Amino acid sequence: LNKRDVVESILTGKPRSPGRSGQAFAAANIALCKYWGKRDEELNLPLTSSLSISLRTHGTTTDIEPADADEYWMNGERLAPASPIFQRLKEYLDLFATETPLRVATQSNIPIGAGLASSASVFASVALALDRLFDWRLDRRALSILARLGSGSACRSIDGGFVEWRAGTDPDGMDSYGAPLPDRWPELRIGLLLVSKEAKSIGSRPAMKRTRETSVLYTAWPDQAARDLARLKEAIAGRDFVRLGETAEANALAMHATMIATWPPVLYWRPESVEAMRRVWALRDEGKAVYFTMDAGPNLKLLYRETDQAVVDGAFPGVETIAPFA
Ligand code: 2P0
Q1: Of the residues 75, 118, 168, 246, which has the fewest C-beta atoms closer than 10 A?
Q2: pLDDT score recorded for residue 235
Q3: CB atoms within 10 A of CB 226
Q4: CA geometry: angle 116, 103, 75, nearest 5 deg
Q5: Which one has a higher pLDDT value, 198 or 295?
Q6: What pLDDT score does 186 carry?
Q7: Average pLDDT across the chain, whole number
Q8: Does the pLDDT of residue 294 top 60, yes or no?
Q9: Which residues are registered as beta bridge partners of 38?
Q10: For the CA atoms of the chain, what is the radius of gyration?
């Protein structure tokens, strides 16, 4: 099955002419157990399941309306048709085979360069806005699958809170989608720590492909991901913060280890990243339960509880705090 077939099967019997406009917001998400490596590059099907937490207030709002010609805007700037983002959005929107050209405007409130996979909230909000524009009234699972076709991690941004992306086994990916966990954990905090604004050297899409193809350490990844996912779910169910933090930090470091063992190597860390990691470890030596996770970039996301806000603010001036369950 290709992307177009998946979309057609989901939209069977659904309205195909647009209303006047569709608008939706989707929050970005941070993986505690990472998605790194695909079993199908066309459909963005992962080799392993992953688990994320929503950034609730930080994400992307998308407005879509019929227009005379395709026109895409991002954060108030009109995209040039030759630009890679324009092409990627067009390829995605063309999957829906609408006769009508569309004006699509996305507005993200994620700090620029924070290394937050903004593609997740962009494609999730586009899928949600299309659903409203065409009045498809799809269920969360179908919306998650549609978002995944734009960017894998976008399937975890249809819902808020903790979301588990089940890898699934179907070749067509109809069992590979983000499913929310019922748990709420109001004390939990995420700190966005910008250590470097330098553009990353390689995008996550080619980086995960190269890792899968050349990293000898990647052979150990599926087992680690399965073990960490189970531990995280136990930690969430039992509100065991130390177990959550330890597992998330170890999972992120193991993912980065697979990249470092890739050839040519993939290293997203800057000297400032390592310095910040050491500061987190120093806090732990003082008995503070502060942990970090990192994605395909140099910045850290701190994980801690509300009671340690002053500790985090003291050690990391300028950290931006998010309460995922406020
Ligand atoms: C994650 N990342 O689980 C992992 C951890 C980056 C590091 O998902 O090719 O933009 O669109 O499926 O989702 C970033 O990869 O990749 C990502 P595609 P995506 O959050």
Answers
A1: 75
A2: 98
A3: 14
A4: 35
A5: 295
A6: 98
A7: 96
A8: yes
A9: 46
A10: 19
pLDDT of 112? 62
Q: Which atom of ligand 1 is nearest to the CA of 46?
A: 12
Mean pLDDT along residues 51-61: 97
Token pair 């609408």 is found at 98
Supply 206's token pair. Answer: 């080619």
**DSSP one-letter string for 262-315:** SSS------HHHHHHHHHHHHHHHTT---EEEE-SSS-EEEEEEGGGHHHHHHH
- Its pTM stands at 0.97
User: What does the pLDDT read at residue 135?
Assistant: 97
DSSP alpha helices (H): ranges in 103-167?
Answer: 118-134, 140-150
Residue for token pair 């805007």? 73
Of ligand 1's atoms, which has the minimum distance to the CA of residue 205?
Answer: 9
Tokens matching residue 52: 């994320």
- Give the Cα separation of 289 and 281 in Å (integer): 10
Mutate to test the pocket of ligand 1, among 151, 165, 221, 293 (most ligand atoms within 8 A of CB): 151
Q: Measured between alpha carbons, how far is residue 1 from residues 4, 5, 171, 173, 183 in Å?
A: 8, 6, 8, 9, 35
The answer to whether the beta carbons of residues 23 and 63 sit under 8 Å apart is yes
Phi-psi region of 135 (alpha: psi -120 to 50; beta: other; left: phi over 0): left
Q: Which of 27-36, 37-46, 200-209, 278-287 has the lowest mean pLDDT?
A: 200-209
Cα 323 to ligand 1 centre (Å): 22
At residue 275, φ and ψ (nearest 5 deg) are -60, -40
pLDDT of amino acid 201: 82
Distance from residue 83's CA to the centre of ligand 1 (Å): 21
How far is the C-alpha of 281 from the C-alpha of 162, rounded, in Å?
A: 25
Burial of 12 (0-12, 13-18, 19+ CB in 10 A): exposed
**98: confidence class by pLDDT, cuts 50, 70, 90:** confident
- List the structure tokens of 176: 């590979």
First and final C-alpha spacing in the chain: 41
What average pLDDT score do residues 36-46 get? Answer: 98
What is the dihedral angle through the alpha carbons of 282, 288, 289, 294, rounded to the nearest 10 degrees? -30
